[in-house]
């Protein structure tokens, strides 16, 4: 209202002055009696635009805020001195086209339209169990082993830009484990042979690169490389959005993370707090499925391109109509067989589709100094037995793992933390936080095979209990410490008799993380 009054105070006298000038000209000269001095639409718009620019400049000076385009959501974010409360990021999101509309839709370069941000993790752990490849075959030989690791799990750079008129772009470049996506590993239960693991070719990963057009809040179309928002972890994978030093193990094991594909998406949100997203994308590659990660390796490509012989769809719904609460449903369905360069022309495989179906529920509550988060995922692979039989006979130089693959997998996890700094008014005013938290996970990447409970690879299923602390001196920077204890499933025969007892896996870990957007 204040801005409207200011505008009226300036515009009305200006229009009156122009009208008086026109009347004076008509009365003082007979040569212009039949001429009319008019204020064209362009002139009027120029006046309004200049006034809007002055008002915006004054508002920015008063609030100390600068506009940024969020590289992950395409929305304009207000970067303020005070931190954003976790789980309420939408409160700071604005229409990316608002500024361009005020400027008449011009595509002029403006630094404030550029987003630069990112996140990163530095992690160190000490594992009080063996990492020998035979530890699941002969666990009694490795009871007292231990080892340590240091790592840079994820270092990411965001770049985004608002072109105006609803058009924007976003990109994400990720350096995993120091910058390369190809590595050697020792395969468990396969004679300890070295295998080359290729996620995607190249030294770094371009995890996102998309262009989008926003028509209004209800309709946004995005095309390009983008995150597949299935499961709680893929949709919320920044290190400030989970308590542990490492990403939640269940979803991280059975689903690709961060899962990204080239695809076409339609998304939007309603005034009631319902956010929706639907995507069309290439299918997975069943040649690369395995027992430990289920479909996880099948999202990547060992080639310079991603095959798209088969297709899939993904959907996600988020409800944020209650303050501090988010409830989410997501799903995926698509075929995976024959999405490979190998020649599959045998009649016995004509009816094989390898349909992957995934359903997930996740939630987050942030209020009264508590954070409570959780997720559950169930996945099914059709024609699992036929896929295993086909993969087993692949050539030795094939990228196929040639392993057993589950028909059904499961993952569930919850975490709860309380901010003890909220009890101190000084620390609370400084927006520092100190969470004491606990987490429970259960997952099994070989839960069922052909509909029956799998006992052959019992070590693929486990429970994990974790406790730790998170200290945030700033909203964007955190220090983490964690102790976890994993109890592996016991191997039993068909009669239910215990056949093998696996060693438990305790771990102590520390980490430093950041996630944020940077002012120019």
What does this structure look like?
The protein is α+β, with helices and mostly antiparallel strands. 15% of the residues lie in helices and 42% in strands. It contains seven helices and 25 strands. The protein has helices at 2-28, 41-63, 98-102, 232-235, 249-254, 384-392, 425-429; strands at 66-69, 76-79, 93-94, 114-127, 147-151, 154-164, 167-176, 182-186, 194-198, 205-216, 219-227, 260-269, 274-282, 311-319, 325-334, 356-367, 370-381, 408-419, 433-449, 452-453, 461-474, 477-488, 491-492, 498-500, 505-518. The strands form four sheets. A 16-stranded antiparallel β-barrel has the order 4-6-7-10-11-12-13-14-15-16-17-18-19-21-22-25. A hairpin with a 2-residue loop joins strand 10 and strand 11. The protein is globular. 35% of the residues are buried. The model is unreliable at 1-18, 27-37 and 62-101 (pLDDT under 50).
Write the layout of secondary structure elements.
Blueprint: H1 2-28, H2 41-63, E1 66-69, E2 76-79, E3 93-94, H3 98-102, E4 114-127, E5 147-151, E6 154-164, E7 167-176, E8 182-186, E9 194-198, E10 205-216, E11 219-227, H4 232-235, H5 249-254, E12 260-269, E13 274-282, E14 311-319, E15 325-334, E16 356-367, E17 370-381, H6 384-392, E18 408-419, H7 425-429, E19 433-449, E20 452-453, E21 461-474, E22 477-488, E23 491-492, E24 498-500, E25 505-518
Antiparallel strand pairs: 1-2, 2-3, 4-5, 4-6, 4-25, 6-7, 7-10, 8-9, 10-11, 11-12, 12-13, 13-14, 14-15, 15-16, 16-17, 17-18, 18-19, 19-20, 19-21, 21-22, 22-25, 23-24
